[in-house]
Amino acid sequence: MMGCFEAVQRKGAELLGVLQAARTVKNIGIVLFSGFALPEAAAVLEIFQSANALTSVDPSLGGQARYKVCLLFAAGGRVDSSSSVFVWTDGVEERRHLSGFHALFISGGGGVRSAVRDERLTTWLRRECPRSELLVPIGEGRLLLEAAGFGRAGTTQRPGGRAAEIHQYCAPDMGVSTAFPSPLQSALALVEEDLGPEIARQIAEYVLPRPQRARFTATIRENASAYVSEKIQASARWLEANGDRSIAIDEAAQVAAMSERNFLRRFKIEMGVTPSEYLSYVRLDMCCRLLVETDLPVDKIARRCGLGGGGWLSKLFRKHLSTTPTEYRASKRLAHAPS
Fold first, then answer.
1. What stretch(es) of the chain map to CATH 1.10.10.60?
2. Threshold 0.70, pTM exceeds
């Protein structure tokens, strides 16, 4: 009887711990810099904002949002993205008096080349990273972490028992990591742990691209070689996240930590297409989605998706879909019109 009572006590204590953890307001940081890549950083932000919206009626939080998300820039104030969209941020030094972050996301983008030379930012990262439970680089964000003295460490076991191939960055005396290969998966996994799989599923359906929106790149991935290395996968994801802007191949090669020549060879072998071809398919997927879901003019859609103009988009459509952008828009809307 006493053993049974003790077991019930232990179970009760465990359940109480889970409930208390679920009710804790968690600090989430997203580090930005001039020229950061907007799409994936914005998606991470949207995941946590959606979680806050879905749990806004939770009385256990006393009216507070479950996730307190801070956009951080070395100097604070307005910072420009690679898409020429400006974002308002807090200065990193404004965080000096607060406890560490539960998760710290380090954005990527072409501006990382200048960011790695920002002593104020790298000094802050050296101080803040050891106090953060999860450290999640987005694309080239790993270069900023490396500039701050945090190197790739490999595979780890995450609290909860899941082991996986991960992006783990740690100094010799610390171990902060995420057990999920994608920053978006990391954010969703955190939400799932706190709020359950159903809310995480709802947010994923709203935030993440649906498979039918990525027809061409999905086909390439399905037909890729049996083994696609983590570095090539990371570069492919980076191309997908930055397809809306002008991209130099050496930027994608840096994400894969390879020379441009070796990167071109490895990408072609593993993915079955060149990086430039894959980027064209990424942009074609983006254009298909915008044609169906918006009323933007074809020329504006082309420019928004990283193409020079409507003429180039029309060439891509004739080559890959044997139709024009206008005809594609009309046919898809007709197919989905209510009967």
1. 211-335
2. no
